[in-house]
Amino acid sequence: MRKMVVFLLTSVLVMGIFSGCSGATSGQKADDKEDGKLTFSMSMTSSGNKYAESSPNINEEKWVKELEELTNTNIDLRMFPLKDFDQKMSLMFTSNDIPDVVQNVGGATTTGMSGSVEAGVFMPLDDLLNEYAPNLMKAVPKAAWQETSYNGKIYGIPSWLSNPSRRATFVRADLLEKTGLDQPKTVEEFLEVMKAFKKLGVENPYQMRENFKYADTILGAFDVLPSQFEVQNGNVVPKFFDIENMTKALETYKTMYDEGLIPKDFATLSMTDYSKSIESGKAGMWSANAQGLSNFRTKIKEAEPEAKIEIIPSPHGPENRGGHLLYSSLVTSYYINSEVPEEKAIQIIKFFEWMTTSEAESFFSFGIEGEDYTVENGKVHFTPPTTTKAIDEDGFRGMFWFVHDNIYNKAREELTEDGRDMMRYLDTIVSNEGLGTVRFVPAPESFSKYPDLAPQADDVGPKLIIDHMIKMIYGKESISDWPKVIKEYEEKGGNEILEEMNEKYKEGNGVIEMSN
After folding, report:
1. Distance from C-alpha of 176 to C-alpha of 483, rounded to nearest angstrom
2. Exposure winner among 28, 325, 374, 486, fewest CB in 10 A?
3. Total-model pTM
4. φ, ψ for residue 131, nearest 5 deg
C-alpha cells in the first residue's frame, strides 16, 4: 500500500511539472511553415563531437543549412553537450521549455526523459508511423521499437543497430609483431602480451579508464560484466553474483595494476584522458567500438607513423566466453511534443522517413556532390578526411542522420581499405562476440529507490559494486571478501530490486532477453 501511495504522489508531482507545456521554445520560429517550409524546434546531444561543441551557433553551420535545403525545413536546434546531457534534459523539462522534437540517448523511459513519456508530454506515434513512415516500420528491429514504447504504444522513433555486438578489442599490431608473440586467445596469453609490451616501453599496455567503461575486456572474458543480469535456476540475478569468476577477474586486474600494465590512476581517468593516451600512441591494447578503426588508425599515425592498428578476438576465460556487452538495439530516439498539431507531426514523421532514402545516405555519407565527392559512371569518388579537425567536421555532418542503422555505413566504408577492414572485423569477429543480458523496459522502479545499487549505464555497474572493485584492485580491500560485497548489496536494497525484477520476468512484463 505504501509503494502505491508513493507512486501516486510521484505521478501527481510529475504531472504538475509538465502541465501546460507546449511546443514553443525561446527563439523558436512562430509559424509552422515559413515560405512553404516545415518549421520545427528540436533538442539533441552533441555526441561528444568536438566540432559541434566548439560551434558558436549550431543553427548557422553549413551542414545544418544544407540539411534544411534538402528537406525543405527550418529547424531551430538546441544542442546539449554529451557530458551534461541528462542534467540539461532535466532542466529543459522542469522549465516547461520543451521543443517540438526531443532527441534522447536511449529509450522512452530512461533517466534522460525524466518521466515525460509517462506524464503525457509526447504523443503516441503508431498510427502516423504506419501511414507515413513504412520504410522505418520495416527497417527498425522489434527490440528497438520496444525500447521506445510505453504501455504498448510507440512514442519514439529509433536510430538502431541491426547487430548489437559492436565493441571490440584493439591492438597495436606493430608492437605485437615486435614481441614475437601470437594474438592472445586466453586471459593468460593476454597478460603475457601486456607484459611483453611493458618490456618494450609501452606506457599503458592496456588502456583503462574510470568505471571500467571501455575497459572491461577482462570482465567480459569471465562473463561478469557488473551492469548485466542473467537467469540462474529460473531467477534473474546480477552477473557479479558469480563469486568464482568475479574473483578471478579482480585478481587479473590486480595483477595488471601491480605490474604496471594499466595506468595507476585508472579509477579517475576520463574519456578525454583515455582517448589522448590511445591517440598519442601510449596504449598497446584497448576496448572500443569497432567503427572507430579508421579514426584510430588516422589519429595514432599522426603520433606514431609506423603504427598498425587491428581488431583481434577478445580473450576467452575458463568458460570459453569472451567479448564485451551486447548493446541495446537502440542508439538514440526522437519524440514529438503532444502539443504539436497533427498536420505538423505528419510532416515531422516524413522528415524522419526521408532519412531512409538514398539521397539522405549520399548526403550524410559523402557531403555535397560536386563539392565533397563526384560520381562517374555510377561510381562515387570520395576522399575521406585525414586530419583530426576534418574528421570531426565529417562526423558532425553525420550526427544529423538522425534515424538509420548505426552498425556501419556500407556506402562509405566500402570505399576505403580501413572501412573494408572494419566491416570485415565486424562481420567475422565482433558479430560472434557480445555478452547478453536481461533488460527491463521501463527500468525497475526500485532502481530509483536504490540508485547506488542500479547499473549506472548499460556498460557501467552499480556504484556500490564499482567502488568495491576499485578498492580491491588497489589493495585496500581483500578480493576474497567478494561474498561480503554481495551480502551488502542484498541488505542495502538488492533483495528488493531482485524481487521486483523477478516478478516482472515471470510475468513477461517489459522483458528483453539479449543473447548472441
Report:
1. 38
2. 374
3. 0.75
4. -90, -40
